[in-house]
């Protein structure tokens, strides 16, 4: 039925052609307004080293959780688990130390500004 | 309508130029308002290209043969679904479809700009550059709205008969969604490199985009294989055709990226490698498109020779130069945070996996381009056939299968011999037992190389399956024990509930295991190739044909006449052990508009084997129909594996339960903070 409908459809007449042209002009105008008259614009913030370190901290904690889970699942020997946990904890400690330094720096900068 | 289509394409091109230029200036001048107009222009591209695509589909449905494209790719009697498919069945239409898909991806990218405004602004400029190229193509050398010269014929030439199959309506969109989908991770990667984006958040943002692109590419490749199997009538599903290879290349590098990117996320390693993997994946997607459309290689899938080749070469050169320039300029930003500590570690297994996938990609690329290269160098075209590809890629695939088993059970950083023993003893024994079982049922791997490969494939697949089951069981037990110790209900202390919770906690990892399971199911299907057999015979009424344990008896032949085609069909009764089990109808069609024949394969598929019948035509001397029968073991497994891969990837796309809780908590905290912040201002 649908196919027959499609096959019987005729080429557009003059009226529908004019309507189509009007709709095209209107749509182009609306698009123009939409693009060149934005009501507001979001200001992009530069990502800081501190924000990056927070992400790394989350990732390191997740790695530690995974390691713990794999140990409980019996996939790691005691020696492997202890060695890896110590190494990851060292990474985490280094990250936390840098985060603390940067936070202190940021706080002191805010204090100077105030 | 054709005028509307042409106008929309011009508007789309103008908007993409504006989105690129204004976006670039907005970044240099740090002008938020200009940047917002560029973003909105990017959204406008979607509407312009949608309107052009709708105009072409409308012309196909209304049999507007004044358009040369519709005249060449449609006809009045063509069924509705194929009229829709006419959009991507020819060079110009498929490029327009490509533009539309790119516009869709671009739309989503620009609508989700709040995820990281600056990064998305940079990515938006890169995607605009890609949009300029494709919109330039459809506006100049491959214009889908070109008019038919002279008198407009009453009917069109029709769609290529090879494309008049339901699978063919879905296969190209899937493949294009995959190819085009790889543009988004490329744009984010290049944007992150250009702006020296700190950290791996861009990978988190693009992870789903990459998986979605990879999933579509995988579905497209499987659907293409299924189409080749069911339509081309040669009894195989992969022929190492240049266009098939073109789709495999970005899939291989994309698969490598999806694995190695985990090392960057987890340990901040392999940043340069990952950056180049995603660059290569995008470049290979474009290169594949170039191969299909330029006429450089001859293939059953390729479009007619055209003049768009130089455009693609120029675009590829510009993109490659941009990638090299920004890499050299900002390579210090990609320094690794950790080093490889041991060769027996999860990191090294990812590294080996990547190396193997890249070697496979290089071998496929080399074999595909060899005819072109040999013609340049010697003046003679030397074609590389399936034996070359099989010889190189089968051992690589087997090593990859081994790594699929080994990798997930290795620990990050290093794994001791004791941990190896804990993890591999039981799966290893099960795998060896499967090899013994194969020999016991009569497989003789020492008699033939193909039997050897099949046996090793099945043994390694069993090894992978055993390691996957062990991962689920061990993890499920830990959670079940934890629930029991926390006074959980009997149901919560059940191992199956534990496995469910385990998957919900890390959808990506356990979804990945389901994908791996799908891969081994598919590989078992591939292993069946060693045992394929076929026979061909002229069959009159009541004649018999024997293949394997089947006897085929020709009962009759029928003829039919439809508006779109006429056909001849054989009615074959299938007997097994003297008992009739089925009737099959292999058919040959003759499409009237195009004047081309096509086969309709009759296939009886079971878990163990496919009985595949082809009506190949009539003997011109005596007029007797010829039937070709194939007995293909384990083909069902190939398509079943594809379903597991689909489900596994969809699972991996679902956010983890914990991540969803964290996101909800963050949103709640943000909502609670909002009035305070407003009050403070």
Summarize the main sheet of chain B. Answer: 6 strands, antiparallel
Helical content of chain B stands at 55-70%
Beta-strand content bin of chain A: under 5%
Count the strands of chain A?
Answer: 0
Estimated radius of gyration of chain A: 31 Å
N-to-C SSE string of chain B, H for helix and E for strand: HHHHHHHHHHHHHHHHHHEEEEEEEEEEHH
First-residue to last-residue Cα separation of chain A: 76 Å
Report the biggest beta sheet of chain A as strand number plus sense, adding barrel if it closes: none
Q: Any idea what the shape of chain B is?
A: globular
The greatest interface between two protein chains, and residues involved on each side, is: A-B, 46 and 56 residues
What count of helical segments of chain A does DSSP give? 4
| Average pLDDT, all residues of chain A | 78
What is the arithmetic mean of pLDDT of chain B?
87
Can you give me a brief rundown of this structure?
The complex is a heterodimer of chains A (114) and B (681). Chain A is mainly alpha-helical. Chain A contains 4 helices and no strands.
Describe the structure.
The complex is a heterodimer of chains A (114) and B (681). Chain A is mainly alpha-helical. Chain A has a domain at 49-113. Chain A is 79% helix and 0% strand. Chain A has 4 helices and no strands. Chain A has helices at residues 2-8, 14-36, 49-72, 78-113. In chain A, helix 3 runs antiparallel to helix 4 (78-113). The longest helix of chain A is centred in the last third of the chain and has 36 residues, at 78-113. The termini of chain A are far apart. Chain B is an alpha+beta fold and 681 residues long. Chain B folds into 4 domains: 1-159, no CATH class; 165-412, no CATH class; 413-527 and 648-668, no CATH class; 531-636, no CATH class. Chain B is built from 20 helices and 10 strands. Chain B has helices spanning 2-29, 32-61, 68-73, 80-85, 91-111, 117-139, 166-181, 183-194, 201-231, 242-267, 271-294, 309-330, 346-378, 386-406, 417-440, 449-485, 495-505, 507-527, 635-653, 657-680; strands at residues 533-538, 544-547, 550-561, 565-576, 579-584, 587-591, 596-600, 602-605, 609-618, 625-633. In chain B, the strands form 2 sheets. In chain B, strands 2, 3, 4, 5, 6 and 7 form a 6-stranded antiparallel β-sheet that branches. Chain B has a 4-stranded antiparallel β-sheet with strand order 1-10-9-8, with no helix packed on it. In chain B, a hairpin with a 2-residue loop joins strand 2 and strand 3 (550-561). In chain B, helix 14 (386-406) runs parallel beside helix 16. Chain B is globular. Chain B starts with a helix and ends with a helix. Mean pLDDT of chain B is 87; it is low at 673-681. At the A-B interface, helix 1, helix 2, helix 3 and helix 4 of A face helix 1, helix 2, helix 6, helix 10 and helix 15 of B.
């Amino acid at each position: 039925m649908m196919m027959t409908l499609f096959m019987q459809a005729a080429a557009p007449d003059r009226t529908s052609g004019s309507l189509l042209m009007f709709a095209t002009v209107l749509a182009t105008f609306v698009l123009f307004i939409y693009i060149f008259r934005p009501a507001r614009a979001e200001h992009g913030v530069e990502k800081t080293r501190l924000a990056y370190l927070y992400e790394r901290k989350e990732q390191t904690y997740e790695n530690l959780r995974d390691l713990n889970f794999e140990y409980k699942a019996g996939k790691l020997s005691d020696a492997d688990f202890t060695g890896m946990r110590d190494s990851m904890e060292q990474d985490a400690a280094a990250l936390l130390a840098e985060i603390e330094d940067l936070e202190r720096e940021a706080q002191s900068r805010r204090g100077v500004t105030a | 309508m054709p005028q509307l289509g042409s106008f929309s394409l011009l508007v789309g091109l103008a908007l993409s130029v504006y989105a690129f230029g204004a976006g670039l200036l907005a970044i240099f001048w740090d002008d938020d308002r200009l940047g917002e107009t560029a973003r909105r222009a990017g959204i406008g591209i979607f509407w312009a290209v949608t309107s052009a695509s709708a105009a072409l589909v409308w012309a196909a449905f209304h049999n507007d043969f004044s358009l040369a494209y519709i005249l060449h790719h449609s006809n009045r009697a063509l069924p509705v679904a194929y009229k829709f498919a006419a959009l991507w069945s020819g060079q110009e239409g498929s490029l327009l479809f490509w533009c539309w898909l790119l516009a869709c991806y671009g739309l989503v990218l620009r609508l989700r700009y709040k995820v990281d405004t600056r990064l998305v602004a940079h990515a938006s400029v890169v995607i605009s550059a890609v949009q300029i190229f494709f919109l330039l193509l459809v506006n100049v050398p491959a214009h889908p709205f070109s008019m038919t010269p002279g008198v407009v014929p009453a009917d069109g030439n029709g769609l290529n008969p090879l494309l008049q199959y339901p699978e063919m309506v879905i296969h190209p969109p899937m493949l294009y969604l995959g190819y085009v989908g790889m543009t988004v991770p490329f744009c984010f990667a290049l944007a992150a490199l250009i702006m020296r984006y700190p950290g791996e958040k861009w990978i988190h943002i693009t992870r789903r985009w990459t998986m979605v692109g990879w999933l579509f590419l995988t579905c497209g490749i499987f659907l293409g294989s299924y189409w080749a199997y069911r339509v081309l009538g040669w009894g195989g599903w992969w022929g190492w055709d240049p266009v098939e290879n073109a789709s495999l290349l970005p899939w291989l590098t994309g698969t490598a990226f999806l694995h190695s990117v985990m090392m960057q996320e987890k340990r901040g390693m392999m940043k340069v490698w990952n950056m180049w993997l995603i660059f290569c994946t995008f470049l290979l997607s474009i290169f594949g498109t170039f191969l299909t459309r330029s006429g450089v290689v001859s293939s059953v899938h390729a479009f007619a020779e055209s003049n768009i080749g130089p455009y693609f070469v120029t675009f590829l050169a510009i993109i490659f130069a941009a990638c090299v320039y920004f890499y050299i300029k900002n390579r210090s930003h990609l320094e690794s945070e950790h080093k490889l500590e041991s060769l027996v570690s999860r990191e090294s297994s990812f590294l080996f996996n990547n190396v193997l996938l890249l070697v496979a990609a290089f071998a496929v690329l080399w074999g595909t381009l060899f005819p072109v290269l040999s013609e340049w160098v010697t003046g003679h075209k030397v074609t590389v056939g399936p034996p070359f590809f099989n010889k190189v890629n089968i051992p690589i695939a087997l090593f990859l299968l081994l790594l699929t088993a080994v990798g997930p059970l290795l620990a990050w950083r290093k794994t001791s011999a004791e941990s190896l023993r804990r993890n591999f003893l039981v799966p290893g024994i099960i795998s060896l037992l499967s090899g013994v079982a194969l020999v016991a049922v009569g497989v003789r791997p020492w008699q033939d190389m193909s039997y050897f490969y099949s046996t090793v494939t099945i043994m390694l697949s069993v090894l992978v399956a055993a390691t996957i089951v062990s991962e689920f069981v061990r993890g499920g037990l830990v959670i079940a024990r934890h629930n029991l110790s926390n006074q959980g209900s009997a149901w919560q202390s059940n191992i199956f509930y534990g496995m469910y919770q385990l998957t919900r906690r890390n959808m990506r990892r356990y979804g990945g295991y389901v994908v791996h399971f799908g891969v081994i199911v598919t590989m078992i299907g591939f292993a069946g190739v060693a045992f394929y057999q076929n026979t061909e015979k002229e069959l009159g009424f009541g004649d018999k044909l024997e293949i394997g344990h089947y006897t085929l008896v020709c009962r009759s032949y029928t003829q039919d006449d439809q508006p779109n085609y006429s056909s001849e069909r054989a009615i074959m009764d299938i007997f097994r052990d003297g008992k009739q089990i089925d009737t099959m109808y292999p058919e040959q069609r003759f499409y009237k508009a195009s004047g081309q024949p096509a086969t309709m394969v009759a296939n009886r598929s079971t878990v163990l084997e496919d009985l595949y019948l082809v009506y190949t035509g009539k003997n011109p001397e005596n007029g007797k129909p010829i039937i070709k029968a194939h007995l293909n073991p384990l083909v069902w497994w190939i398509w079943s594996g594809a379903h597991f891969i689909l489900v596994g990837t969809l699972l991996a796309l679902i956010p983890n339960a914990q991540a969803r809780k964290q996101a909800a908590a963050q949103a709640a905290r943000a909502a609670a903070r909002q009035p305070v912040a407003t009050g403070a201002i």
